[in-house]
Write a structure and sequence with these properties.
Structural class: alpha/beta
Strand order of the largest sheet: 22-23-1-24
Largest sheet: 4 strands, mixed
Helix content: 25-40%
Bound molecules: uridine-diphosphate-N-acetylglucosamine
Shape: elongated
Number of helices: 14
Radius of gyration: 21 Å
């Protein structure tokens, strides 16, 4: 068990290089199982979700080697189509491997996935989509068992634009016979990135980024070297940190076009933001004003993965805000922890009603999930006095070198083994 010890109150100045997007890298790692060609993914974040995905790939018989910031995957020796519960429970993205495994082996056996406990997180849309491609699915003793004679393209209408279901169906369809059309597909930038990767290894995918994706099955796929897009959630987290602590922070490799909804809200709060090429500069020198309301939505709406961080910011703004979480049922678990730091928040159903206070006060708080944990770190950096954030393994799932990057811009934060 490790914790962060944070002495709050420092302003943040300096620049931060943003990592490749966790939510791009994970499905791309799953996609590497589809091909016997060598795949190199560059600027990969050192986070536990990636390490766990690599563990799973190795278990499947793939070779996965870290080379500095890159990972080289060779799946030519993959010989296993089963992911046991121990590994699947570590990582929700293990579910993406259903599409790749069924494509490669015509069989797949995966324990129901784990990941952040932020709601029910069913996988029914993944399974319905795969069934439309000809996969027979049974569920037994906590495992999903899939088999098929062959995969055949089809039209699939998603009941809601699920990111994971869209990606899983794309992975199953790239080598199916004929054409697959996914309607009401998720439009997140990471889906466009997956399309770009798949096409780089020889697939024929069109339309990602819109609500309709068309995949024409191909027989073989090759290798490539690929640089995923930058992590819009990491970028957003550092911008909110600078807004909360005050100072002037510049993000490098930031992909401003993918976080317009956050930038819009931060400008409404009173932050000065300048964008130049792939850099975002944020300056915040006075107490900010609350935004009236924020609702999380599928992309291009406000991301659920930045909900906790923006709520923490609203806690110390002038005025009142209502933050509504529309995607995941239990994504306010960090609220009682923020209250320990002096926040004035009431949660009713899916909305948090926030009345701004002057400052947070240092306290000992517990991270219950990845983004809620990050929000607690930001609150502690902005707080008066000393805080401890416990159970930071959740934060390690998605932020590489978090404390190093924060220290480099002036945050007083250290990792301590408990
Ligand atoms: C992905 C992201 C996660 C982000 C989320 C929403 C990755 C690795 N994770 O998660 O960081 O918070 O998108 O932007 O990319 N749903 C169903 N049935 C299904 C699948 C989903 O009802 O079969 C529902 C979910 O309960 C949720 C909504 O659809 O309410 C969106 O979930 P989804 O887009 O699938 O999120 P993930 O892919 O799990």
């Amino acid at each position: 068990m490790e914790k962060y010890v944070i002495n709050g109150g420092n302003k943040l100045y300096g620049s931060v290089k943003i990592q490749s997007a966790k939510n791009s890298v994970l499905p791309i790692l799953a996609a590497a199982v589809l091909t016997d060609g060598k795949v190199t993914i560059t600027n990969v974040p050192h986070i536990s979700d990636v390490r766990n995905m690599v563990k799973i790939l190795t278990r499947l018989g793939c070779s996965a080697v870290f080379d500095g910031e890159n990972i080289i995957i060779d799946s030519s020796s993959a010989d296993c189509f089963e992911i046991p519960s121990g590994l699947a429970h570590e990582l929700r993205s293990s579910v993406f491997l259903l599409g790749s495994l069924i494509s490669r082996f015509k069989m797949a056996k995966i324990a129901f996935p784990g990941g952040c406990d932020i709601g029910l997180r069913p996988v029914d849309l993944h399974l319905t989509g795969l069934k439309r491609l000809g996969v027979e699915i049974t569920e037994k003793n906590g495992y999903i068992l899939c088999k098929c004679e062959k995969l055949t393209g089809n039209e699939i209408m998603l009941d809601c634009p699920s990111v994971g279901a869209t990606e899983n169906i794309m992975l199953a369809a790239v080598k199916a016979e004929g054409t697959t059309v996914i309607k009401n597909a998720a439009r997140e930038p990471e889906i466009e990135d997956l399309q770009k990767f798949l096409n780089a290894i020889g697939a024929k995918v069109l339309g990602a980024g819109s609500g309709t994706i068309v995949i024409e099955g191909v027989k073989t796929l090759g290798g490539t070297e690929f640089q995923p897009i930058s992590d819009r959630i990491e970028a957003g987290t550092f911008l909110v940190a600078a807004a909360m602590c005050g100072g002037e922070v510049q993000l490098e490799c930031a992909g401003a076009e993918n976080i317009s909804s956050l930038l819009h809200k931060l400008r409404e709060n009173g932050c000065n933001i300048h964008i130049k090429n792939d850099k975002i500069m944020l300056e915040s020198s006075r107490r900010l004003t609350s935004v009236k309301s924020i609702e999380t939505q599928p992309y291009p709406g406000f991301p659920t993965d930045l909900q906790a961080q923006i709520t923490a910011l609203c806690c110390i703004c002038k005025g009142q805000s209502i933050i509504t979480e529309n995607l995941f049922e239990t994504r306010f678990k960090y609220v009682p922890e923020l209250r320990k730091m002096g926040a004035d928040i009431t949660v009713i159903d899916r909305s948090a009603f926030v009345r701004g206070v002057d400052r947070f006060k240092g306290a000992t708080v517990v991270a219950h999930d990845l983004r809620g944990g990050a929000a607690l770190v930001l609150a502690a950096l902005a707080a008066e006095g000393r805080s401890e954030v416990l159970d930071i393994s959740h934060i390690d799932r998605g932020y590489g070198s978090f404390e190093h990057k924060l220290r480099a811009i002036g945050g007083d934060i250290v990792r301590v083994v408990v």
